[in-house]
Amino acid sequence: MKKIEWLIHYFTRVEKMLWAFSAFGIIVAFFIFDRDNYITLMASLIGVTSLIFNAKGNPIGQFLMIIFSSLYGFISYTFSYFGEMATYLGMTAPMALVALISWLRNPYKGNKSEVKVNRISKKEHIFMWVMTVIVSLIFYFILANFHTANIIPSTISVTTSFLAVYLTFRRSPYFALGYAANDIVLIILWTLAVLEDISYASVIVCFIAFLVNDIYGFLSWRKMEIRQTITL
Question: How far apart are CA 71 and CA 93, in angstroms?
């Protein structure tokens, strides 16, 4: 009971409305376009819940992201999106675990419900982009070998995913923009999938909800960054 009361007061009215509308849209889309693959519905609801916790800088968000990545990897496998499967199972899920450890080890002033925002140096930015190019090239040839459907957007998804998970691990506010870019790529990918199977339309709605939440997450982290800087 105390945990429920804590959750009610923990999130702002805007955050509660954002989560409610996102969850409602996902559920409605599922029963209109799918009605069968409940694992997709479960993954979507877990994913959107993880984002609202991430927006608060709460490590719970990373824990939920590990679960979402595992489920989404399976969903991608069902449509032969091996790039998505490999990205989320081989990179996003493990990096979410690393990020979870990083966030737990870097609480803001001892508050385990809020991570300390970090700034990345120019040298590290260069390192990040070099690694992004290398990872993208490696995955392109791996995906080509597995005859991945829609290989170009799939490779771009790997690129945006790597940027997002790296920035998440480093506790940078820009991780949310990385995920927002990835959401746009995934909306395109699953739109192509819908041309063959309309049931995947519910996945598109899921990532539209994710896009809105990730944009909010970036704005929230920027406010956190300013507040933490002022109160140092």
Answer: 10
Lowest-pLDDT choice from 76-90, 94-108, 145-159: 76-90
Residue 57 Ramachandran class (φ > 0 left, ψ -120 to 50 alpha, else beta): left
110, pLDDT greater than 70: yes
Return the pLDDT at 4: 65
Residue 20 CA to residue 22 CA, distance in Å, equals 5
Interaxial angle between packed helices 151-169 and 175-194, expressed in degrees from 0 to 180 and rounded to the nearest 10:
160
For 165, the enclosing helix (H) or strand (E) is: helix 151-169
Q: Quickly list DSSP for 49-110.
A: HHHHHHTTT-THHHHHHHHHHHHHHHHHHHTT-HHHHHHIIIIIHHHHHHHHHHHHHSEETT
The mean pLDDT value for 166-192 works out to 93
Q: Which residues, in sequence order, are CB contacts of 119 under 8 Å at separation 6+?
A: 172
Q: What is the structure's pLDDT at 5? A: 66
| CA–CA dist 155, 86 (Å, integer) | 11
User: How many residues would you count in the chain?
Assistant: 232
What six digits make up the tokens of 158?
A: 């790997």
Provide φ and ψ at 113, rounded to 5°: -90, 0
Q: Worst-scoring range by mean pLDDT, 76-85, 175-184, 197-206?
A: 76-85
In DSSP terms, which residues pair with 118 in a beta bridge? none
Nearest of 14, 17, 28, 19 to residue 205 by alpha carbon: 28
CB-CB contact of 139 with 174 (8 Å)? no
